[in-house]
Amino acid sequence: MNWDNLFSFSKSHAPRWLVLAIDLLICMVAFFMAYILRFNFQLSSEEVLQALKLAPLVLSIRLVSFYLTKTYSGIVRYTGTQDAVRIFIALTSGTIFIILCNLINYIASDEVMIPSSIIIIDYLISMTAMTSSRLAYKILFQQIRSESPKKTNVIIYGAGQSGMITKRTLDQDNKINYKVIAFVDDSDEKAGKRIDGVPIFSGDELNAVIEKSKVDELIISIQNIAKHRKREIIETCISYDIKVKNVPPVERWINGELNYRQIKKVNIEDLLERDPIELDKVAMSQSVRGKVILVTGAAGSIGSEITRQILSFYPKKVILLDQAETPLYELEKELFDHFKHNKEILAAFEICVGDIKNVSKLRRIFENNKPNVVFHAAAYKHVPLMELNPSAAVATNVFGTKILADTAVEYGTERFVMVSTDKAVNPTNVMGASKRVAEIYVQSLNFSHVNKETKFITTRFGNVLGSNGSVIPYFRKQISEGGPITVTHPEITRYFMTIPEACQLVIEAGNMGDGGEIFLFDMGLPVKIVELAKKMIKLSGLTLGKDIQIEYIGLRPGEKIAEELLSDSENTLPTHHPKITRAKIKPFEYTVVSEIINELISLLAQEDNEEIVRKMKQIVPEFISNNSIYEALDGLKIN
């Protein structure tokens, strides 16, 4: 036997050998008590000698059964159901073995070694004493701990299985001093009941519980809580300056057990997320399964998520094209890890480092793979940078899109889905204008005489949470550094959408389009950026004005105060999907558009930024620069 673990010692709890010794002492006392009770407190010397003679045998059997079931291995102050089960198994199996020994002795010598009544009394006393001693120690430990002056009062939202496990996890962690003062649950059937002596309140009583008690934290333990309900809970806690934490999904628990360190603070993304979108996955699967897909900008936040989603529909092949080598390498590693058990999907994607402006590269890709669908997510998108580099914006967002679209037409691609932006609506910056020019070109190409088969669909949406350059990671970094948080304008607002949600709608819109449409996504309500910053400060446990400051630095070049999803000259039509509408737009003549865009592209050689922007304003008359050096060029008409 390996007794190393048995004799190990820890300063934080009793050593296992001590627990085992106490258990054996309890069993020894129980055995003699059984004799005393059996003979009504009147033991003869002969019966005392018999008890002393048999005690070593009984204790040896108990020792072996305790070792085999590891009854001493649990931490006594955290005794639970599993510990009680181990004690039951150990005592029951040991008692059965004693009965067998008794039977064998009776068969061999026609004498009873231990009276049956003593065996039963011994079993009952041992069972009661061992479990009671553990529970008494647990209650004493919790009572002493709860009386500590430094404790954190916690409400657990969710009184189901996950909530009970969360409470036990908090009780078991000796490094924290949490006191669960209440459960709150949306089920009215649970209201008024108790778990481990802790009262359960209904969801409608949350504000009352907070106002009545001193609450430091609230932990959301419900596994499948609706996004809108989660937002309501978080908003309530923020208004009372209460920290909010979240229990991770069960599948992320370590070896199926929850650890306190896994209970994390909620993120601002939890406040901005919306309920899951219902998609026609059957139709999406039919449009992707067995098809060859080309994704440009595949290493970016949108392109990589489109890749993850379409791979689950088992396409024939997915070509991941991007010029960013390192992010593309990281994506490849991620896909290999995620789909390592699915050889069919692992064989379905191909990494391709390349630039969409490289005509010969694109032609080889189309010639060798004949893609059925193109998801075009490659673009330069940072507004201030593109305001300083109009030639780069036009080269990638316009010229690159034109090359890709023309190549798709040449090789008979079925669908071309372009990912655009809300900044293309009444653009005030070079980036947004370049995307609008690209929109105009692919729309005109859709209805042109040169296009025989390809359907061009444009999707337009606002900011996505967690994307490269998103304001949220930027604010989070500023908070971690102690601030200040920099906001461009006190009234600036933005729409937000999660990356998975945006990409799901891109795939859905690409599937439903007949060609030539611009699909708009329901972005929800606009979010005031300064309010976003304030909520992030509160969720971080900091106080605005005391721990961290907000500074207004002025609008950046080309930046709008409020983004738009639809230009003034457009209106929308509904689609079969409630989250997607279709913009009704005026048609563009391909020959005219092609000629003027070629003129714009020809200006790239000189890199004369002023002339490039001048031409963009001619193509997009609604392009009115804001807080930019190009404001002087406004009001020009197409020559």
Tell me the layout of helices and strands.
Blueprint: H1 16-38, H2 45-69, H3 81-109, H4 116-146, E1 152-157, H5 161-172, E2 178-185, E3 194-195, E4 198-202, H6 206-212, E5 217-220, H7 227-239, E6 243-246, E7 264-265, H8 268-272, H9 281-288, E8 292-296, H10 301-311, E9 317-322, H11 325-338, H12 343-346, E10 349-353, H13 359-369, E11 373-376, H14 383-388, H15 390-410, E12 415-419, H16 430-446, E13 455-460, E14 463-465, H17 471-480, E15 485-487, E16 493-494, E17 496-498, H18 499-512, E18 518-521, E19 527-528, H19 529-539, E20 550-552, E21 571-574, E22 580-584, H20 590-602, H21 609-619
Helix pairs in contact: 1-2, 1-4, 2-3, 3-4, 10-18, 13-15, 15-16, 16-20, 16-21, 20-21
Notes on the protein architecture:
By secondary structure, the protein is α/β, with parallel strands linked by helices. It has three domains: 129 residues, no CATH class; 115 residues, NAD(P)-binding Rossmann-like Domain (Rossmann fold), CATH 3.40.50.720; 344 residues, Rossmann fold. Strands 10-9-8-11-12-13-18-22-21 form a nine-stranded mixed beta sheet, sandwiched between helices.
Termini gap: 95 Å
CATH superfamily label of the largest domain:
NAD(P)-binding Rossmann-like Domain
Structural class: alpha/beta
CATH C-level label of the largest domain: Alpha Beta
Q: In the residues, how many domains can be counted?
A: 3
Strand content: 5-15%
Strand order within the widest beta sheet: 10-9-8-11-12-13-18-22-21
Tell me, briefly, the overall form.
elongated
CATH-derived architecture of the largest domain = 3-Layer(aba) Sandwich
What is the helix tally?
A: 21
Unreliable stretches (pLDDT < 50, length at least 5) are 1-12
The averaged pLDDT comes out at 82
The number of strands is 22
- Biggest β-sheet strands, sense, barrel: 9 strands, mixed
Cα gyration radius (Å): 35 Å
Look up the CATH topology of the largest domain. Rossmann fold
Q: What oligomeric assembly is this protein in?
A: single chain
Helix content: 40-55%
